[in-house]
Amino acid sequence: MMNTQMQQECETCGGTIPIPQDVVIGEILKCPDCGLEYEVKEINGGICNLEQAENVKEDWGE
Hints:
The chain is mainly beta.
């Protein structure tokens, strides 16, 4: 039996984003090619809806 992994194409660079079998809504996935981060918004029938994650900068109280 073959173990197939879900994957999705990066909107920015066209690279392949691997999606783990145990992915959960809210999880952050990173494109291995360009480093862009995506948040899992929905999982429906083995298909993930990814949206570009917000780039939150640290506020060190400055």
